[in-house]
Design goal:
Elements lengths: L1 H5 L2 H11 L11 H10 L3 H9 L7 H11 L3 E5 L5 E7 L8 E5 L15 E2 L5 E2 L4 H12 L8 H14 L5 H10 L3 H16 L4 H14 L5 H13 L3 H50 L7 H19 L2 E6 L4 E6 L5 H5 L1 H23 L8 H23 L15 E4 L2 E4 H22 L2 H11 L1 H6 L4 H23 L11 H14 L4 H22 L2 H18 L14
Antiparallel strand pairs: 1-2, 1-5, 2-3, 3-4, 6-7, 8-9
Helix pairs in contact: 2-8, 3-4, 4-6, 5-6, 7-9, 8-9, 9-10, 10-12, 11-12, 12-17, 12-20, 12-21, 12-22, 13-15, 13-20, 15-20, 17-18, 18-20, 21-22, 22-23
Length: 576
C-alpha cells in the first residue's frame, strides 16, 4: 500500500483497475453499463475514474464505443418519460436526415413504445462531449484493452507492443497483469516487457535489474534495445551498465547458437525424411530393379496433386479440363466442415499412394517392361515420359502452383527452449519412420518381399522356379512409385504444389541411393538423413541455399570418387 501511495493518481487508478478488472463499486456492471454511467455523470473526475476502471477488461465493445465517443457519434436521447438514454448514431441519413440509433447499454437498436426502431436527427440530440484529459483516459484503456483478452495471441501482441514502446506509465498495468496471468508464454512475455521498460528508467539500479532479467530470459527480441542501453551507458561513463549489457548480449548470442543448432537439426531431419521416402521408392526401382527411372519425380507430383484433389472433393469440389480432348470435368464436393473436412489429409495418404502406384504400374506395363537390362534406353525413355507428364499437369491444373491447406492438427507447433517444432514436420519425421519399418517388413517378412528379392537377384532362375516375374516386376515398380506418391503427400505440408515440383528431388534422391549403396535400404536411410541435415546446416551457415546445395553435391562427388560402391554396398553371389 505504501508503494501505491507514492504513485501518481492516474497510475494508481490504472493499477487498481487491473488488479480488480471488475471494480467492487460496479461489480454488477458490464463495460457498456459503466460507459453509460460515465456519459451521464456530470462530474469530470468521476467520469475519468469510471473510464479508467475499464482497464484490463477484454470486451471489444469498449474499443468500439470509445472510438464512437471520440468521433462525436454518441448522443443522449431523452425519452418521452424523461429517461436519458445514451445512443450511438450511425449509418446513412434518411430523407429527414435521421440516423440509425443504437443503445449504448445493450448494443441493440433504440425502439419506441410500439417496438419499432427509432431514427434520430443528430442536431436535435445532446452530444456527448469530451476533452483532452478524457480522451487520454480512453486511450490508456484502449491501449491496455488486449491485456485482458481471452485470446492468447491478442494478449501476447498487446504485451509486446506495450513493452517495445518503453513507456513507464504502462508499467503498473503490466505488473498487475503479471500477477493475474496463468499462461507460461504470456508470463514470459510480461517479464520481458517489464524488463524492457525498466531499461528506460533513469535509475541505474532499475536498469541493472532489467538487464539481469533480459539476460536470464535470453530475450532475443530485445537485443537491439540492450545494445542501445549499452551505448548510452558507455556514453554516460557507467561501466556497471555496460558490463551488464555485455553479459546479457553474450547470453542471448549463446542462446541463439543453441536454438539455431537444434532448429537446423530438426529441419534437416524433416527434409531428410522427405528425401528418404522419395529415395526409398527409387532404391526399389533403381537399386533392386536396376531401372533408371527419370520420371520418379513425377510420381511425387502425382501424390501431391492427389492430395490437392482430395482436399477439394472434401470441400466445395473442383473443375478442370482434360488435356487434348478439351472436356471440362466437374468433381462435386462433399461440402464437409469441421473435423469431417479436416480428415481430408488422412484420406489423402492412401489415395496419394495408390494414385502414384497406378501411374507407376501403367508406366511399367507400357514402357519399362521392354527396357529391362537396357539402362541407357530406359533413362532416355523415362526422361521423355517425365516431360510428357509435366506438360499434362500444366494442361490439367495450370502452370501456377496451388496451395494445400494444412489440417488444424498439423498447423500448430511446440516451442521447447525457444526451438520451434512444427507439427507438420514432426508428422513427416514420424511417418517416415513408419514407412521405413513397413518397407523393411514388406521386403523381409512377406511372400511378396521374398519374390521381389529372388527376382531381383536372379530373374532367370526365379522364372525357372515358376515365379511370375512380370507380375513381380509390375508390383515392385508400383510399390516404388507409390512411396514417391507418399512423399508428394508430405511435401504439400511444407510448400506449394506445381507441375515441376518433382524435379527438385530427383537428383538428390538418385544421389541418396548411390551414396547409401545401390540396393541397400539401410544405406538409403543413413544417406537421406545425412544429406538432408548437411544441406540444411550449410544453408544456415552460408545463408545461401544455392551455394549450400552446390557444396553438398561437390562433397558427394568427392565421396563417390573415394568409395564408388557407397556406404553400404549390397553383397551378392551373382556377378550379373
Amino acid at each position: 500500500m505504501l508503494l501505491l501511495s507514492r504513485l501518481p493518481k492516474l497510475l494508481r487508478s490504472l493499477l487498481l483497475a487491473v488488479l480488480l478488472p471488475v471494480p467492487v463499486l460496479h461489480a454488477a456492471d458490464t463495460p457498456r453499463q459503466t460507459i453509460v454511467k460515465a456519459i451521464l455523470t456530470a462530474d469530470d473526475n468521476q467520469k475519468r475514474e469510471l473510464i479508467t476502471s475499464l482497464v484490463g477488461q477484454g470486451d471489444e465493445a469498449i474499443r468500439e464505443l470509445f472510438t464512437a465517443w471520440r468521433q462525436d457519434n454518441l448522443y443522449v436521447y431523452t425519452a418521452p418519460d424523461g429517461t436519458k438514454i445514451p445512443v450511438e448514431l450511425s449509418g446513412d441519413k434518411d430523407a429527414s436526415g435521421a440516423l440509425t440509433a443504437t443503445r449504448v447499454d445493450t448494443g441493440e437498436p433504440l425502439k419506441d413504445a410500439a417496438g419499432q426502431p427509432l431514427h434520430l436527427v443528430a442536431a436535435k440530440q445532446a452530444a456527448v462531449e469530451h476533452d483532452a484529459r478524457l480522451r487520454l483516459a480512453m486511450k490508456n484503456v484502449v491501449d491496455l484493452l488486449d491485456l485482458g483478452s481471452p485470446l492468447l495471441a491478442k494478449r501476447l501482441r498487446a504485451i509486446q507492443t506495450i513493452g517495445a514502446a518503453q513507456k513507464p506509465d504502462k508499467l503498473p498495468a503490466l505488473l498487475a497483469r503479471s500477477a493475474l496471468e496463468t499462461d507460461s508464454k504470456a508470463k514470459a512475455a510480461l517479464r520481458e516487457a517489464i524488463a524492457v521498460i525498466e531499461l528506460a528508467d533513469p535509475s541505474d539500479d532499475v536498469k541493472l535489474k532489467g538487464l539481469t532479467e533480459l539476460r536470464d530470459l535470453h530475450a532475443s527480441a530485445s537485443y537491439d534495445l540492450i545494445k542501445t542501453a549499452r551505448a548510452k551507458g558507455e556514453a554516460d561513463a557507467k561501466p556497471a551498465i555496460v558490463k551488464a549489457a555485455d553479459t546479457a548480449l553474450a547470453a542471448i548470442d549463446q542462446h541463439k547458437s543453441v536454438v539455431n543448432f537444434f532448429g537446423t537439426l530438426f529441419r534437416g531431419l524433416s527434409a531428410g525424411s522427405i528425401l528418404l521416402v522419395v529415395a526409398l521408392g527409387l532404391a526399389i526401382t533403381f537399386g533392386l530393379m536396376g531401372v533408371i527411372n527419370m520420371a520418379h519425380g513425377e510420381m511425387i507430383t502425382v501424390g501431391a496433386y492427389a492430395t490437392y484433389i482430395t482436399q477439394k472433393v472434401f470441400g466445395e469440389g473442383m473443375q478442370f479440363t482434360l488435356p487434348f480432348v478439351k472436356i471440362a470435368v466437374h468433381l462435386p464436393g462433399l461440402h464437409l466442415t469441421g473435423w469431417a473436412y479436416q480428415l481430408y489429409f488422412v484420406a489423402a495418404i492412401p489415395i496419394g499412394f495408390l494414385s502414384a502406384a497406378l501411374v507407376g504400374i501403367a508406366l511399367e506395363r507400357s514402357v519399362i517392361r521392354f527396357l529391362y537390362r537396357r539402362p541407357l534406353e530406359s533413362l532416355l525413355a523415362t526422361w521423355g515420359v517425365s516431360l510428357i507428364l509435366q506438360q499434362l499437369f500444366k494442361l490439367t491444373f495450370g502452370s501456377n502452383n496451388v496451395n494445400v491447406d494444412s489440417p488444424v492438427y498439423l498447423s500448430s507447433n511446440w516451442t521447447v527452449y525457444d526451438v520451434t517444432f512444427d507439427w507438420n514436420r514432426v508428422f513427416v519425421i514420424g511417418f517416415a519412420v513408419v514407412i521405413v519399418f513397413g518397407v523393411w517388413l514388406a521386403l523381409t517378412k512377406t511372400p511378396l518381399g521374398l519374390l521381389i528379392r529372388c527376382v531381383m537377384q536372379n530373374r532367370t532362375m526365379a522364372s525357372c522356379m515358376g515365379v511370375r516375374t512380370e507380375r513381380v516386376n509390375m508390383l515392385t515398380f508400383g510399390l516404388g512409385s507409390g512411396l514417391a506418391g507418399l512423399a508428394g503427400v508430405f511435401v504439400t505440408q511444407l510448400g506449394t504444389v506445381g507441375p515441376s515440383m518433382g524435379q527438385e528431388y530427383i537428383v538428390d534422391s538418385f544421389m541418396t541411393v548411390v551414396v547409401g549403396g545401390v540396393g541397400s535400404i539401410f544405406g538409403t536411410v543413413v544417406s537421406a538423413l545425412g544429406i538432408g541435415m548437411a544441406d540444411q546446416s550449410l544453408q544456415q551457415i552460408l545463408l545461401n541455399p544455392v551455394m549450400g546445395k552446390i557444396l553438398v553435391l561437390v562433397a558427394i562427388i568427392l565421396f563417390l570418387q573415394w568409395r564408388p560402391t557407397g556406404l553400404f554396398a549390397a553383397k551378392s553371389r551373382s556377378l550379373d
